[in-house]
Design goal:
mainly alpha, disordered C terminus, globular
Length: 261
């Protein structure tokens, strides 16, 4: 777009449109508040989109994939993951949660604490291996372009910590909202998406090259929280806390990387 119009404004407009449309459509399909979904996107992901544009577009299409997944439309869900993969190859990781949801729907014992722990460890191990492979490729094949990232205090020091804090906050709010509520297939999947994030984010702190791996489960909260509001009746205090904390997060991540000059 920028090459056709030679305009940064046009580039930013169309990339943000490409991100917002799947989010709005996903929220509309689930009959949840589009306003809440867009607000959460702007607060926790907009700043990132100005740097990791292609991957944030991929995340938005994975959100659309999630909307089909929650209605057990697996083929359409996978189709949108493939579309997301066209923007960023890391989107293939979301396939893990597609198969997980299908498995949970057909195996009730998948919700038992012992099984949840084993599956959680398996998923974290999967992402950790992915991170290690990514680190190896970057260090050995792409060192000229990416070698400095994460190698000292000039790059990537604030953002992984911010993601880790966000994952803990989301898990706290989610636990507050679902505590005492009757579980169903949707909440079982949400449990994995939300509670796995702190562990995966912690892995990202250890291997900052692959910190973006956590984007896919972490930013599903853009749809998860409005879904909880509509279906579980989130307490007003929790809503207010989310608004306040996300606005603070927005300003904390306005400059996620320290200047190298």
């Amino acid at each position: 777009i920028s090459k056709l119009t030679y305009s940064d404004q046009h580039f930013l407009f169309f990339t943000q449109l490409l991100i917002l449309l799947p989010i709005a459509f996903a929220a509309h399909r689930l009959r949840i508040s589009v306003v809440w979904a867009v607000f959460i996107y702007l607060a926790i992901l907009f700043n990132t989109s100005l740097n990791a544009t292609r991957q944030v577009i991929a995340v938005s299409f994975c959100l659309l994939s999630l909307s089909f997944l929650l209605q057990n439309k697996y083929l359409k869900s996978i189709v949108w993951v493939v579309v997301a993969y066209g923007f960023h190859h890391s989107a293939v990781l979301f396939i893990v949660f597609v198969f997980l949801h299908h498995w949970l729907n057909n195996h009730s014992f998948g919700t038992k604490k012992s099984v949840v722990l084993l599956i959680s460890l398996g998923i974290v191990l999967f992402f950790t291996v992915f991170s290690s492979v990514g680190m190896y490729l970057i260090e050995n094949l792409l060192a000229d372009d990416y070698g400095s990232y994460g190698s000292d205090n000039k790059f990537g020091t604030k953002f992984p910590i911010a993601l880790f804090g966000l994952s803990l906050f989301n898990a706290f709010v989610y636990y507050w909202a679902v505590k005492g509520k009757r579980q169903n297939a949707v909440l079982y999947l949400f449990n994995y998406l939300v509670y796995l994030c702190p562990a995966i984010c912690f892995s990202g702190l250890l291997s900052r090259y692959a910190v973006r791996v956590v984007y896919y489960p972490l930013f599903m909260f853009i749809l998860i929280f409005p879904y909880l509001i509509k279906n579980l009746g989130v307490p007003p205090k929790a809503k207010g806390l989310v608004v306040f904390a996300y606005i603070v997060y927005f300003f904390l991540t306005m400059v996620p990387y320290e200047s190298s000059f």
